[in-house]
Design goal:
single chain; about 450 residues; alpha/beta; Rossmann fold; 7-stranded mixed sheet; about 40% helix; globular; binds pyridoxal-5'-phosphate
Length: about 450
């Protein structure tokens, strides 16, 4: 086993392809349906929003898709990213487990999001699109897309969930620095936003509402496309550079396989990016790691939601996707892990749960911030509120190893830093954070508004 703290790859070892898990699955994922006809959507249905290259990636049956050199050139600004052995945290936890974390916070935007933003901007620019619209929760996705659009000469217009827009003003500053336009959502700039504000002038917003606004502008303008930072197959695909690097790094560090892979899930992209290449090995019978998603107790789409068809947005404009959902009308409590406040889960992640290939647990935010402090005070890095869920899940696992004496290898997705989230840390340090468990009754009530698909 390596003595190193960081296991690094050369730029020449940057993955040349994205890994597509779909052909390796024991059963194909359920189709995406047209909301009117309830028939599977075709490429033409998606063309008003996405360029054809991305639509083809969404439904591709190829196991590997080559990463264009223009994208790899930009990836090289921060990739390959380091894999750390968390020796100081292990000592602090007094655990026989070996903990590793794959750190995506060194990207210009501070998270894993640029891995797909750069790819999406590239294919849209290639298709002659003038502007991309999008939503953002905590602001990481908006930042990543603003960065990527700037690099390919595209305009970028972002609707940021109002609660986060007010809590984290510097994310907006970052987006504007890279040349984007930013609105607080719900906004007066769209029909969707105006209709929500008419009902609730003080609406804190939600990712679902912001998606409705961004989709509306893209759908009604010929040269404007929409871009989504998570959930869709092609987004998860782009993130697999993370896990492919991690496979090579663990190998370089002398570890045969992780025993547990843990990531936080909002829409599922960073988790999928790290875990899919390990699931590939699991499905091939080469190893049998536990693959575990950790979600907030306040937004427990996998653990408390139902696996059924639902809309991706709040208004009900998008195609229907089969996924774990709390109901598209879900308006979450404004917890600090803004990036995890989405009503649904990626269809591919939902499908993997349904097939029993992975599992999930929900953890409350105070336990997550306690884990974050332990991590920051041992490893140094201040994590974003989202991956504190993965850290808390890993600490639970490491504590169990202390009890049992097992020397498990635990791999953590540390998908971003928390430098824009210090207000959340201040609240926690001041003892002001409380736990909130999303009630099952609220799930049932919201699911009554979800269309029934036979
Ligand atoms: C966006 C984001 C998330 C949530 O999105 P996923 O698609 O589930 O990864 C989690 N962590 C960070 C740092 C993010 O920026």
């Amino acid at each position: 086993m390596t003595e190193s703290t960081k296991i690094l790859l050369e730029e020449s070892e940057l993955p040349t392809h994205w890994y597509n898990i779909i052909p390796d699955l024991p059963a194909p994922p359920p189709p995406v349906l047209h909301p009117g006809t309830l028939e599977p959507v075709g490429p033409g249905d998606l063309a008003p929003l996405f360029p054809m290259d991305l639509i083809l990636q969404e439904v591709s049956q190829d196991s590997y898709i080559e990463i264009p050199e223009e994208i790899r050139d930009i990836y090289r600004l921060w990739r390959p990213t380091p894999l750390y052995r968390a020796r100081r945290l292990e000592k602090d936890l007094d655990t026989p487990a070996r903990l590793y974390y794959k750190y995506e916070g060194g990207s210009p935007a501070g998270s894993h999001k640029p891995n797909t933003a750069v790819a999406q901007a590239y294919y849209n620019a290639k298709a002659g699109v003038r502007k991309l619209t999008t939503e953002t929760g905590a602001g990481q996705w908006g930042s990543a897309l603003a960065l990527a659009c700037g690099m390919f000469g595209l305009e970028c217009e972002v609707w940021q969930v109002a609660a986060s827009y007010d809590q984290k003003p510097y994310r907006g500053s970052m987006m504007r620095t890279w040349g984007a336009t930013v609105h607080s959502s719900p906004s007066e700039t769209t029909n969707a936003g105006r209709s929500i504000l008419a009902d609730d002038p003080d609406s804190p917003g939600s990712l679902g509402i912001a998606i409705s606004e961004a989709v509306e502008v893209a759908a009604t303008n010929e040269d404007v496309n929409y871009s989504l930072g998570s959930v869709l197959n092609h987004v998860l695909l782009h993130q697999t550079v993370i896990g492919q690097e991690a496979v090579a790094q663990l190998d370089k560090g002398g570890e045969r396989t992780p025993d547990v892979v843990i990531g936080c899930t909002g829409g599922g992209s960073n988790f999928s990016g790290l875990s899919f290449p390990f699931i590939r090995e699991k499905l091939a019978g080469n190893s049998d790691p536990t693959i575990r998603a950790v979600e907030p107790a306040a937004c427990p789409s996998i653990t408390k939601g139902e696996y059924r068809y639902d809309f991706g947005d709040a208004i009900g404009m998008t195609p229907l996707m089969k996924m774990h959902t709390l109901g598209h009308t879900f308006v979450p409590d404004p917890i600090h892990a803004g990036g995890l406040r989405y009503h649904g889960m990626a269809p591919l992640v939902s499908h993997l749960c349904d097939l029993g290939i992975m599992e999930a647990e929900a953890i409350g935010q105070t336990e997550c911030f306690e884990a974050a402090l332990r991590f920051a005070r041992s490893e140094g890095i201040i994590p974003a509120p989202e991956p504190t869920h993965a850290i808390a899940g890993a600490i639970r696992e490491a504590d169990r190893c202390r009890e049992s004496g097992e020397e498990k290898v635990i791999l953590i997705a540390l998908c971003g830093h928390g430098h824009f989230d210090m207000g959340a840390y201040d609240s926690f340090l001041a003892g002001e954070l409380s736990d909130y468990e999303y009630p099952s009754e609220a799930v049932s009530a919201a699911l009554e508004k979800v269309p029934v698909v036979a």
